[in-house]
TrEMBL record:
Residue ranges annotated for the SnoaL-like domain, each copy included: 6-129
Protein name as it appears in the record: Nuclear transport factor 2 family protein
Organism name: Sediminihaliea albiluteola
Coiled coil feature spans: none
InterPro entries referenced in this protein's UniProt entry, alphabetically: NTF2-like_dom_sf, SnoaL-like
Gene3D superfamilies: 3.10.450.50
Listed transmembrane segments: none
């Protein structure tokens, strides 16, 4: 019974890791992103970056600078556990509104993350993450319109500490992984 309970706890910790990654990416919270990878972890984001994850995180301010909106959504998550190591395939749809010189464009990527996780000192983190694109859609120029009456007066998400979630919630602190 203990083994089954531990398996469920490990699976939930890995799912939580993936969800926190989405928040860290979308809020441009690089300090939080560092908490999600082991120091020797690898990251493969295609043409953006391939190498040590900590070096990738160092480049994130430059990579994310033109991204006015990032919105990662994960769905199917297949996980294979093997003791303190695991592998996972995570389906993702990621929306990017990217500022160009005179206009913004929308880029939607449907793909998967191919992950390797390790539990060290009782904490699951990424040991290797690779992004894979299954499809893309580009809208040029951007079709994002916050002036429409249906969203008038709504809170609008944004990168960084000015995102409304930081003032709304008490348990979400920038740069800090909670409930681990």
């Amino acid at each position: 019974m203990q083994t089954q309970v531990q398996r469920l706890l490990d699976l939930e910790a890995i799912r939580n890791l993936v969800h926190i990654y989405c928040r860290a990416a979308d809020r441009h919270d690089h300090k939080l992103m560092r908490e999600l990878y082991h120091e020797d972890a690898l990251d493969d984001h295609g043409s953006f970056f391939k190498g040590l994850a900590m070096d990738f995180i160092d480049k994130l301010p430059e990579i994310q600078a033109p991204m006015e909106i990032l919105h990662h959504n994960t769905s199917t998550h297949n996980i294979e556990l093997d003791g303190d190591k695991a592998e996972g395939e995570v389906y993702v749809i990621a929306f990017h509104r990217v500022a160009l010189e005179k206009r913004s464009i929308d880029l939607i990527v449907g793909g998967r993350y191919l992950d390797k996780y390790e539990k060290r000192e009782g904490v699951w983190k990424f040991s290797h993450r690779a992004g894979l694109a299954d499809w893309t859609h580009i809208q040029d120029p951007s079709s994002v319109d916050f002036s429409h009456p249906l969203v008038s007066g709504a809170l609008v998400g944004q990168a960084g500490l000015d995102d409304p979630s930081y003032s709304f919630f008490q348990g979400f602190t920038a740069g800090k992984r909670s409930n681990v």
